[in-house]
Design a protein that fits this description.
globular; Rossmann fold; alpha/beta; five-stranded parallel sheet; GMP Synthetase, Chain A, domain 3
Length: 540
């Protein structure tokens, strides 16, 4: 059994060297090629001075080159940090400055962003640039320390690894309420424990063809990659240009003859609304999995009625608990569209706890805070002891290390059936299109523009693709006319598109509650009412 993530590909290369491991458009990479290329990259990185525990960022679109880069970084005993290629440079700068990487490895159409990232001399002197794209590239503010062609000068034989089971494998940066993204440290052990359970539970096998839909900076992609490598299957990377084309997504599943599809529910909801799934469609598909947010029951019924041969499983878990902590395979198509789908039972080695304010278990049916414990728990946030201690606590009466519990910020209850049911967020963090977003980070970015007297970011539920609509209420500076288009343009320079408000409302002064604070409930009500009225006009 593998103890390090990079060993998964080595073992498969020994067993199935000529078998295809990764498929992306017309490109195919065998397990042997994946092993050899990542070994060469690891040797190059070590030769360039990388040592055990060094962080290496990568800024590469989801392609076979990105998977090679991930494995090469691990084989160099380093920690990989995915950077979102669609994020603006100011947000990526915060991540780079926080993790202090030895290298940023880039590839694809990222030249302008890379040039902006390297504009400051202090960053240029501290961080080297590697290039895994085609050909060679240079910018005004950077020169590459190596290119893809340089890999051929290094041996392809396996390396001896110095990192261990409990060492960090990667750091995933998520939205932070202060405006600074939080780095969640994930170890080899965290991922291996989940993959071992998942491969066994789902019966993954070398003949499987597994989707890779979520972006690489999103923790769900971890399951796609290592679940594939752990079972010797094929990873089929979904081209990003299909994301907003439900008919093309459906055709991708058919043409690729996928046996497993895993995505956030908003994608499945989007496809259901477009009615692109035929009855008894996708004959090769064996299982459909979702995670990241609630999948409404009506579209689930839509899918299950059309695909009676497929097993449908709901996975639940925040980034801090590594991919998923619980699962629920829906036994049959629900009869009632109002039926609630539970998040289910804990995966092997995991525990779900519904606790009250005194950290005591709540009786069945009573709402409490959802805590997680077990083998998936992250060691904590990168170089942030205060946030780590606030989120990860010792269970009362338990002083040993495996007694750590993590407060998810979610509300839950235990049903009469003994299963756990998710009941929503207890704070201002939301999930939109599967992304975890702190509304405070958006508000911080808006305030920093100095274009508004006051502002507030709230979220309302919607039946649209995003699942949750981010709404901006603002009062412009006195004697200053600021249109939403102007705010959006300026905010897009520091925030990724998925964090952009989609509803806007101008006020002279924002409504206040009895304590003189901005009345966010009132704002949510106003946005909800406007949405309702718009729906009535559309249907009328």
């Amino acid at each position: 059994m593998s103890h390090l993530l990079q060993q998964l590909v080595t073992e498969q290369a020994e067993r199935h060297t000529g078998q295809v491991a990764i498929v992306h458009k017309q490109e195919r990479l065998t397990y042997g090629e994946l092993e050899e290329s990542s070994n060469r990259l690891a040797r190059l990185l070590r030769d360039a001075g990388c040592r055990k525990g060094d962080r290496v960022c990568f800024l590469i679109p989801k392609t076979p080159a990105a998977i090679v880069t991930i494995l090469g970084i691990l084989k160099a005993d380093c920690v990989y940090v995915p950077l979102d290629t669609s994020s603006p440079a100011p947000r990526l700068e915060k991540i780079i400055d926080a993790c202090e990487p030895r290298f940023v490895i880039a590839g694809g159409p990222v030249n302008s962003v890379l040039d902006e990232l390297m504009a400051e001399e202090r960053r240029r002197t501290a961080v080297a640039i590697g290039w895994m794209g085609e050909g060679k590239v240079e910018g005004n503010n950077f020169k590459t320390g190596f290119s893809r062609e340089d890999l051929l000068g290094y041996p392809s034989a396996p390396l001896e690894c110095r990192n261990t089971f409990n060492d960090a494998a990667h750091i995933l940066f998520t939205s932070g309420s202060t405006g600074v993204p939080k780095g969640v440290v994930i170890t080899h052990a965290n991922v291996i424990h989940f993959i071992n359970w998942a491969v066994k539970y789902f019966g993954a096998k070398p003949s499987d063809k597994i989707s890779s839909h979520p972006p690489l900076h999103f923790d769900l992609s971890t399951f796609d990659i290592y679940g594939t490598l752990g079972s010797g299957a094929q990873l089929h990377i979904v081209p990003t240009d299909l994301n907003l084309a439900p008919h093309k997504l459906a055709e991708f599943i058919r043409a690729s003859e996928l046996t497993q599809w895993f995505s956030v529910p908003s994608v499945l909801n989007f496809m259901a609304k477009a009615d692109v799934v035929k009855f008894n469609d996708f004959p090769s598909l064996e299982r459909l999995l979702w995670c990241g947010e609630v999948f409404p029951t009506p579209p689930l019924i839509h899918w299950m009625r059309r695909l009676p041969h497929v097993k449908f499983t709901n996975l639940y878990g925040p980034t801090e608990a590594t991919i998923a902590s619980s699962y629920y395979t829906v036994p049959q198509c629900p009869d009632d569209e109002r039926a609630q789908i539970p998040i289910g039972s804990p995966c092997d080695g995991e525990e779900l706890l519904v606790l009250d304010a005194e950290l005591k278990p709540t009786p069945p049916g009573e709402i409490g805070d959802l805590y997680l414990s077990g083998v998936g728990l992250s060691p904590g946030y990168w170089r942030d002891i205060e946030k780590t201690e606030a989120a990860f606590k010792q269970r009362p009466g338990n002083s040993v290390s495996d007694g750590r519990i993590y407060k998810t910020g979610d509300l839950a209850k235990i049903g009469d059936d003994g299963l756990v049911y998710y009941l929503g967020r207890a704070d201002t963090q939301i999930k939109s299109r599967g992304y975890r977003i702190e509304l405070g980070e958006i508000e911080t970015a808006l305030n920093a523009l100095n274009l508004t007297e006051e502002c507030a970011i709230v979220a309302i539920n919607t039946e649209g693709f995003e699942g949750v609509a981010i709404c901006c209420a603002f009062a412009p500076l006195k004697d200053c006319e600021v249109a939403p288009a102007k705010l959006r343009t300026e905010m897009s320079k520091v925030l990724p598109n998925y964090m952009m408000p989609v509803r806007w409302k101008r006020f002279d002064l924002l409504p206040k509650n009895a304590n003189g604070k901005i009345d966010r409930n009132s704002l949510k009500g106003q946005f909800q009412q406007e949405t309702h009225n718009a729906g009535l006009r559309q249907n009328g």
